[in-house]
Amino acid sequence: MTISHLARANVLALEPYQSARRLGGSGDVWLNANEYPLPPSFKPRYGNLNRYPACQPEQVINGYAAYAGVRPDGVLVCRGADEGIELLIRAFCEPGRDAVLFCPPTYGMYAVSAETFGVARRTVPALPDWQLDLPAIEAQLDGVKLVYVCSPNNPTGNIIQPEELKALLEMTRGRALVVADEAYIEFCPRATLAGWLAHYPHLVILRTLSKAFALAGLRCGFVLAGAEVIQLLLKVIAPYPLSLPVADIAEQALSAEGVALMRERVAQITATRQWLANELQECDAVLEVYPSESNYLLVRFAPGSPAFKSLWDQGIILRNQSKQPGLTDCLRITIGTREECRRVVTALRELPVTATRRQEAL
Fold this sequence. Notes:
By secondary structure, the chain is of the alpha/beta class.
């Protein structure tokens, strides 16, 4: 007898999300997970670890509400934005009946989380400019409870235009929740929808401390929404989602000093991103460097380019996006330190001149 025959059929068939750590690699330049390249200086303070933590630590909730410009009763803290994705499915979707909708190419956990809970997945591919195909979304809305929209989008780096999002919110009013994944919003703060929450009770926003706050290892995320949505999510969240050390460091990160440090990081990453984009455009193997409002660049290479494997073998670990719809021959490059980015450029310039843009031009 095997154990697998006891498992749920959809889990047996599930293809798990291939996180950067699952994919592995052996190197010293890690540019495949959209992390900040240097560790922050926060240290856990003394706490009573013999006691359970609060489900929703007041100082963390108040700190994030003040930072995001929303009411504390519209904030839920959880184990990364990934848990927020799952909590929404658990609270709003009936397995075997309801569906979620998203627009690839985009973040893979929307699909994996829905499949895990036995909820149907509907996809409406993004338009060639990676904006929303609104007529196609409207045609697929029956039975959809959650529409996930990532902006800035991972892995393409573009924002979804405000008029597109307003049209989507009007289209879904009374029918479905629109979940705006703003994991990278600190790199494009003008694009946040936080100010829209009072006008759209079916709008939900996902946030994280993993990117600009440089705390990917902390696993701390947030859901911003109307109080009614937050109360429903509190029914299904684990009793103690944040450990005391996590809450302690999150509180420090959300202090005035912590937010100021985050903004300095964003300025530095943005400057390095522009430098790297300019340098990559001069590399023979590169066909296109796409504009980005995030801490990474999506880069299309010439067909057959050995760039990914060559850099991997040199200990420079990038993220291959070629399996995503419309992203054949694309790599995503996290913005690391300036020296790490120089190593990427140097390695690309040393590639053999085969199937490159320059060769094609000849």
